[in-house]
Amino acid sequence: MKIQEFRDKIKKATREQIEIIASELYRMLPKNKKEVMEENFDSKLEIILNSDPNDKIKLKSEKPKAIPFINLKNEILNFFFLVDRDLYFAPNKFVSKTERSKWRFKVKSFIKELDKITISSDDYKEAAELYKEIYRRLCHACAYYILSTQVPFNAVGIPQVEFLHNVLKKYFINGYSKETLSSMIDLVTNTYVDQETAGYELIYVLVEDLPTRDVREQAIELAKDRLIHTYLKIPKEFSNESFRFEERKERLLDLILALKMKNHEGREGVDFYLKNGDFYSDKYYSTLCHISRFHQMFNEKPSLWIEMYEEFVKNNKLKPDKRLMEEYEELKKQL
User: Fold this and answer.
1) How many helices (H) and strands (E) does the chain have?
2) pLDDT reported for residue 209
3) Is the pLDDT at 110 greater than 60, yes or no?
4) 101, 148 in Cβ contact below 8 A?
């Protein structure tokens, strides 16, 4: 109902009816919202009560105050607690069916409030951490039923790559410490992707957000260290867990290759990729595919792709099909 429609309806109301309507509307306000707007409401009430009934009352519309951070934090942490126990998906007595279906509006509200917290605030670091943890749970919802959707990023209206970029921006605003880089590498290589996103797209976002060669070198060393520990943890028997570790290992290899290419050390990156990767398909063909993706993303000349293609063919490691041969001829023209 629009405000004018509301006004038209109460024009014929008696004084007693208006008192009841006003009381009921005030009761309907959620407690957290009531606390935030109470001061503003009280001041407007005083203006109305102290005005001449014959004068037209003009009230300045004030922007609603931000929710106190401690309230926002507790609300988000409570949401995490319930989501992590599947209470926003499976029927239960703690979260009603109606509330479960409204999770996206809750998350949108969280994001909006967190975005209001600036770098100058003492709460900024905690806000960035909460923002990251929202992203993690949406990633998890891409692979497991924890929310009433299979497309969580679509549901909140933010593409996964854009959401990731926002997280990186919030973390890197204070610099590129070892701890921060390690956390963001894990975020890119150890999360699930939605139906519209490929793992290498997340890698591209991270690499593009690392501004200097030194920072990228540090990221390479951290990725290699994670790669070693991932190798040690992969179960020998095939299982969902072993598949997950293999997937993570492949993502780390992709990241190292992309960082090396960005640092103009592509050949070294390819050698490392071939030496450490376990490939279910033709590893030389797979390598060319990855080089092709990254040189296009970084707007680099295709010289590395051509070099590796010629070497693979010369050493009988690759039998090119028609598509590869045509791509080779086309890329040669670009040099």
Assistant:
1) 17, 0
2) 95
3) yes
4) yes
